[in-house]
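Q: Can I see a sequence and its folded structure?
A: Here is a first one.
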Amino acid sequence: MASMKLTCLSCGQVNRVASDRLSAKPKCGTCGASLMPGKAVEVDFATLQKAARTDDVPLVVDFWAPWCGPCRMMAPEFSKAASELRGDARLVKLNTEAHPKAGSAYGIRGIPTMARFKGGREAARKSGAMPAAQIVSWVKSA
């Protein structure tokens, strides 16, 4: 049975979870937060960097800003997709206005932009608002 590394999105601690336990609501050994929350979680730049380079489970990031109409429109769809992808991927949101270094570090030119990270590298990128079904399909195909 293989173990997977997951960074806690609350405290930043790296945890090891058996791959067959990913859908069983694993919790952080340090703070007790859910490691596969089934909802979109807001993260800061440092947590994103650590999770993107460490996690074995696909990490999908929605780069957004509060003033962006399409971003606000896509937010509930992104949350629906997070629920559907529980156990297969983790979906997080990063506010590019609150964390401007993230936008430049990841080369974000427009928002909303989603990036999928796997194995420490960016595997795919998609810009523009999408419905939940399209987000799920993109994550699974990427």
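Q: Show me another, different protein.
A: A second, unrelated one:
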Amino acid sequence: MKRRFLDPETSAESAEDNLCRALLSMKGVAEMRSFLRDLCTPAELEALVDRWRVVPYLLQGVAYREIHERTAVSVTTIGRVARFLSQGNGGYQAAVEHHAVPPLRRRGRPASNSGIHKKS
């Protein structure tokens, strides 16, 4: 977390709530993609996408090494996601319960275009 020497006008919790409301206000994938691309640096968005990319594999019990080979996501990141899936704040589980987890890709078949992709 950043160290700040000035006191912001809004508390961190209030600012986080405001961000959550902004995310909830987006209508559809295209609008959310635009918002995330404006909000995040390319590296931040890539980190979010990488974390989300491994969730379906972890839910299916795929070994970390195989997940790494299939997604190119680091084993460290995979372990972090696995830890938060089982011991986190319940966010991943809520997404699972809302059927937001994409289906696993079969080897040799192209992925669908339903995810967040970088601009060409």
